[in-house]
Amino acid sequence: MNRTTVILLALAILLAHTLAIHQTPDGAFGAPYEIAHVAFRTARNLVRAGVLTWNPASPPVESHPSPLWVAVALAAEFRYVSPILVSQTLGILGGLSTAVILTQFSPRRMAGLIAPLLLAASGTAAAAGASGTEAPVAMLLVTTAFLAFEWGWRRLLALSLAALVWTRPEGLAVLLLFLLLERFDRPRAADGGPRGSLAPWDLVPAAAAAALVLSRHALFGTWISPFGASFFAPAPARILLGGRYLASYLVASGAGPLLFLPIGLLVTGQLSPRGRRALILSLGWAGAVAISGGDGLPFWNALAAVVPLSLLSIQEAITGEMDRRPRLYPLAWTVLVIATGFSFLASKVPGDVGPLRLDAIHRAWMRPSAGLAAAYPRPFGRLGLLQELREIEHLRPLGIFLRDNVKEPSSIATFWPGAVGYLSRKEVFDLLGRTCPAPGREGTVSWRGAPRVDLVRGIEQGADYVVPLIGSLAEGKTAVSFLEEWTSRYDSAGGSPERIAELLAALARYELISVPVPPERGGLDSPATRPFLLLRKKDLGLTPRLEVRREGRWFEVRLHHRGHREVVELSVRVEDGAGGVHSLRPTGEWVAGGAEITARTGILLYETGPRPILLVRGLLPDGVPAGTLSARLHNPAMKSSAPLSAVGPAVQVSF
């Protein structure tokens, strides 16, 4: 097999890997990540409203960490092309181009294809390609800049670094590292002598960095990005979290353990100059990620930009060892095959492999440590990617539901502002302060790390709707369960019963409702498989209203509704004079005892207009001459007496 065939094979593997890994559980190609929708909304606001801000009526703030990616979405909006299509296409092309560039570092050796083949097997590179984020473009720019630096191509190096500075905040750190390498570790020329200086072309990325800082100050009134602010206020807890994030990559990415080889050779002074420089740049980027606290996106998206350089350092280490010790050839290729296999395993849904019972082991391997899971409760590998795609499949149709059913002017508060904000086109508040400032803060915070805010103040800002969680409550959970997650994961005061009580008090102005959000790929008229929970302000006047009528022993429960579609359940009870309780079954029978029984389940409400709809008509229980008949609406799969479960007040009538 010649070299060209291997290169084409590597490209085919990477493309197939990218297309296969970004599939939803039903086999469809997934939408971009949540954070990508932030760039889409910011660009659309600039095109449609003429303001570079998250909410058009709010002061300008820096909501997305990549100005270049906002510009890409802006170009798509100007041309009336889907930014989703543009971002994912550029990402896939960026990944394939990176693999081609990697082949140019050793153009005459088959061993020079180790890095491209490892890249094709890397779940990090494959997942980043279709993520819709700027990560694969940053990966292409970093690799291109390093190739230009090694071969002395001044213009290409300058342009690549200038674009990188506008693509990712870490680009400034990479630029400084390149300047240091140019000063202290400059590559040799082809004749073995010192390579010429890259000046004055190094002024181009410096000018790009200065233009970025000045533009930020002119637009947002600050000199430092939210990402950069973490470097000026280092927090040991955040750095420890970032260290755990890096350690998880080494343990669970598949090829991560191979990095110990170039690191060991670097310490002993045996790593080649090119491998040394590639490793230094990789470690520099990784250090910036650690200081920022890591990232919650799947497959270590924060490290994707330097995965090619880290693989190049591995290639340089292995080829150097094989040249020094030819007898290690079989061992080296065996290790590479094993590492490639483990990389593909990380991209596989956990399960048995043929007769090998690996499901439990695989899931344990993809499970984060307790410290990391507290901040980023997402499994590693394919499971984490599937979780992200499932969340997007919930959030995108929710945004469409809010756009079509919630009247203007309405505001929405959420922990997931991207897809909801882009598709709902409503005023959206990020409860964590990443797209718009949280209460008590002047600017936005970084998307990196695990920011904590005062959730009580966030709720008290008075949004009309709050998205408390993605989808419905898990089986066996209560309505207060999401408050426990809020306090333990997001709240600056931490999780405690007292804090939950404070949040419940702040939510007294809201009612929990269930809305029928159809699946994204089924169309707006498709039935919703599960209701989506929202918190809605009571003073909007959209609460369904019950009416109980009685004629002798017969009774009717009717309902008036002037709001959007929602799903409720109805409980009907009778309390006799002796303290006994009787509950109405869906079959019309009465059951004595204190058990909570639902009379009607899964009631889909529409606007009723001036005439109410009949929910129940029946007879009062026999043997109860006098008592109180009460009817109450509550959310599906919840007890009517549970906190936040009731939808509107109960209605009673005596007999």
SSE blueprint and pairings:
Blueprint (H helix, E strand, L loop, with lengths): L2 H19 L12 H15 L18 H12 L4 H20 L11 H8 L1 H7 L5 H17 L2 H14 L3 H14 L18 H18 L5 H7 L3 H17 L7 H9 L4 H20 L14 H18 L4 H18 L12 H7 L4 H6 L5 H25 L5 E4 L2 H8 L2 E4 L24 H6 L4 E3 L13 H9 L7 H10 L3 E6 L16 E6 L7 E7 L2 E7 L5 E11 L4 E4 L5 E3 L7 E6 L7 E7 L7 E8 L16 E4 L1
Parallel strand pairs: 1-2, 1-3
Antiparallel strand pairs: 3-5, 4-5, 6-7, 7-12, 8-9, 8-11, 8-13, 9-10, 13-14
Helix pairs in contact: 1-4, 1-5, 1-6, 2-3, 2-20, 3-4, 4-5, 4-6, 4-7, 5-15, 5-16, 7-8, 8-9, 8-10, 9-14, 12-14, 14-15, 19-20
- Total number of beta strands: 14
Major β-sheet profile: 6 strands, antiparallel
Distance between the termini: 90 Å
Low-confidence stretches: none
Strand content: 5-15%
Percent range for helical residues? 40-55%
Number of helices: 23
Mean pLDDT: 89
Indicate the radius of gyration in whole angstroms: 29 Å
Structural class comes to alpha+beta
Q: Which descriptor suits the 3D outline?
A: elongated
